[in-house]
Write a structure and sequence with these properties.
The protein is flat and about 75 Å long. The relative contact order is 0.08. The protein starts with 19 loop residues before the first helix and ends in a 39-residue tail after the last helix. The protein has 142 residues and is mostly helical.
């Protein structure tokens, strides 16, 4: 995220430029090795205090930037996840096969709904009648 010149920069679609601390915070939070760390541990790694952490996330622009960077991480990991799913499906994993076949629009999970006692569901059709007060409904030919 930081260029070699040391200036704040992002290659994101948002125009928000984070402060140096916010940029350091993003780098620590987005590092997968820190995914299970709590706020206190994250702040120790940045280093910053909890107030800086919560103030950053209170800014909608920072939160949007964080969300955007998270999606970039997910998108960059999709190929290995798909390959792993294909491998497990080919080894006989039913759940992985459902995922892969669903992605290929071949498999669609169905759920059967039943009514009382396992029988068919009772469906009531409700007709809605809208009365327009500007329309005369009486016969004028009589």
């Amino acid at each position: 995220m930081t260029e070699s010149s040391g200036q704040n920069s992002t290659d994101s679609q948002t125009s928000y430029l984070p402060t140096k601390k916010e940029e350091a915070l993003l780098e620590v939070i987005l590092n997968p090795t820190n995914r299970l760390k709590n706020v206190e541990e994250i702040c120790r790694l940045v280093p910053c205090d909890k107030k800086t952490y919560y103030t950053a996330f209170a800014k909608p622009e920072f939160a949007a930037l964080y969300r955007e960077e998270c999606f970039k991480l997910v998108r960059s990991s999709i190929a290995p996840v798909i390959h792993s799913c294909v491998r497990e499906a080919s080894r006989g994993s039913h759940n992985h096969a459902k995922i892969i076949l669903g992605m290929g629009d071949i498999y669609h999970e169905r759920k059967e709904l039943t009514g009382k006692g396992g029988g068919p569901m009772e469906v009531k059709k409700i007709e809605r009648v809208v009365v327009d007060p500007n329309v005369n409904t009486t016969d004028s030919d009589s």
